[in-house]
Amino acid sequence: MHELTVSPWASLAYLVAGVCFILALRGLSSPASSQRGNRFGIIGMTIAVVTTLATHVPLRSVAVPPGNPHDLMIDWDTVGEILAAIGVGAAIGLVTARRIAMTAMPQLVAAFHSLVGLAAVLVGVAAYLNPQAFGISDLVVPMIGQPFAVIHPVSRIELGLGVAIGAITFSGSVIAFLKLNGNMGGKPIMLPGRHVINLALLAGILGLIAYFVTEQAPWVFWTIAILSFVIGFLLIVPIGGADMPVVVSMLNSYSGWAAAAMGFTLHNSAMIITGALVGSSGAILSYIMCRAMNRSFISVIAGGFGAVADTSGGGTAIDRPWKRGSAEDAAFLMSQAEQVIIVPGYGMAVAQAQHVLREMGDKLKAEGVRVKYAIHPVAGRMPGHMNVLLAEANVPYDDVFELEDINSEFAQTDVAFVIGANDVTNPAAKTDKTSPIYGMPVLDVEKAKTVLFIKRSMGGVGYAGVDNDLFYRDNTMMLLADAKKMVEDIVKALD
Amino acid sequence: MDFIAILSIFVLACFVGYFVVWAVTPALHTPLMAVTNAISSVIIVGALIAAAAPTVLGAIGAGSGVAKALGLVAVVLASVNIFGGFAVTARMLAMYKKKERPVAPASSK
After folding, report:
1. d(CA B87, CA A94)
2. Nearest C-alpha neighbor of A464 from the set A338, A288, A300
3. d(CA A222, CA A438)
4. pLDDT at position B58
């Protein structure tokens, strides 16, 4: 039996679906076009699903004598099962989407990636167990014994890659989820010789996929899958919690390549186009994150970076003088300012301070102060995370600026208000060649006339394990308190 | 379709992806991750094929029965992603608003 013949109409429909997905991503070039783009995505997915259901109606043979034993009728049981499966998934997905807090978006994205990875593995296994149904094999009928299917050599490579990438995506995303959700410590866990182990596993997987072409034995297939699950786990475990933006982007990319590999196996243009789009998207986001941290992708993936937040030294050895301020001081300084730039970071998300922050911004605006927000690309635990949290708090998006666009304004700004960000404001990145964060693009907050820095206490260091020079400058005032409480007090003082 | 044809589609799609994704504004990077996750669940096509496949000759072991069950599980997983992914993206995108009035600071200073 040759390849599954796909009707040209179905191929055309899949192409249209792919184009819809391209338009969905294109819509994200601005908030104005984004919601329409999302609708295109939904339309594209609907086209793909309906086309598949219409061209693969489950059939059952009706062997009722004296009728033709090859008479086929629709297998309504299976139709029901499929619709039920879609329904269950839809219910879980919709409820989760409605209830998830925006501060938990990184974990949710990681969890969703794991589902795609697992789905890719399951589809790969199904294709391996029943290759005739996917049209990827030739049936061999021996003289004696059962007929068996021989999967085409190229399909074996595609299948092997799809399962491997899917498995890595799954186990890697599970670990990323646990780290982001706090179930697993953010500290990197490093096994001895892990680089050798990982490289050996990778070589093993690739070697087995090549071997699979010559020998279609079950043990080869299952070993590929198992080794891939293991390497996914081992790759992510040594990566520190705040490097998760790169990890999640990377896994996003992998989920795309897994879908693409399956698309090659099934000769489906919708899956191939989608896989390419998602794969490129994740790769570009990873690149942007790494560039913003001035670290190479390899160094991030190699892991091991990231100090423990609660230092076992109990603070800095050098006792440098620093200025402390109160909420009233802050309120006074800001209400007298012409322009205030707010710099939010992960700490704001943890404290859930985005709403009171917006209230503070509103009160300042009512007094004639110009309020802007400055976002560093790696602020938060996911690309664009701060923007979503501010949007959720009803901050208009034209008040929010990226690093490149706002950095030059700090020199003309009266007050820089840093809440929950640390390493991204450290001037040592520009001057101190010995600092681990040297070379990383940072926000020039120290150029403002006054810097207000919210932190829970003076002890403890940022993610990179360094103390922030910003704290000890003459024009910096430290506001030591929980972020949300401090901002609430400032709001009261502004009244 | 033969291999070179689908490879061509793939290569061109990668280029399209490169240009389209660089055009995404950084403020929308989180919705980008959410929507790319949703569309990557187009893997449901493969899952549906497995779930709808008739019992055929040549299937390995318990064969197509297991394949069908796995296909159904994959349909559930992919559906969670599809519905959840597009819904959470829509929810996020609805939050982005411009300033309500043109900039006219109330000069009470």
Report:
1. 6
2. A300
3. 45
4. 47
**What residue type is A234 in one-letter code?**
L
Q: How far is residue A268's CA from residue A425's CA, in Å, rounded to a whole number?
A: 48
pLDDT in tens, A67-82: 555 667 788 888 999 9
Closest-CA residue to A364 (of A320, A331, A404): A331
What is the distance between the alpha carbons of residues A222 and A163, in angstroms, rounded to a whole number? Answer: 10
Backbone torsions φ then ψ of A369, nearest 5 degrees? -85, 140
d(CA A458, CA A480): 8
Before A66, cis peptide (omega within 30)? yes
A53: nearest Cα among B47, B56, B84, B76:
B47
| Owner of token pair 């007929």 | A147
Check CB contact under 8 Å for A388 and B95. Answer: yes
Read off the pLDDT of residues A231-265 as tens digits, 9 standing for 90 and up: 999 989 888 877 888 899 999 999 999 999 999 99
pTM: 0.88
Q: Do A282 and B36 touch (CB under 8 A)?
A: yes
Residues of chain B positioned with their CB less than 8 A from the CB of A120? 43
Q: Are B56 and A133 in contact (CB under 8 A)?
A: yes
Please tell me the distance in Å from B98's CA to the nearest CA on chain A: 5
**Pick from B82, B90, B95: CB nearest A45:** B82
Helix/strand/coil (H, E, C) string of chain B? CCHHHHHHHHHHHHHHHHHHHHCCCHHHHHHHHHHHHHHHHHHHHHHHHHHHCCCCCCCCCCCHHHHHHHHHHHHHHHHHHHHHHHHHHHHHHCCCCCCCCCCCCCCCC
- Measured CA to CA, the distance from residue A319 to residue A309 in angstroms comes to 19
A334, two tokens:
């800001």
In total, the C-beta contacts within 8 angstroms joining chain A to chain B are 420
Each residue of A469-484: pLDDT tens digit? 888 899 999 999 999 9
DSSP string, A98-111: HH--GGGHHHHHHH
CA distance A351 to chain B (A): 20
Q: What is the ipTM of this complex?
A: 0.88
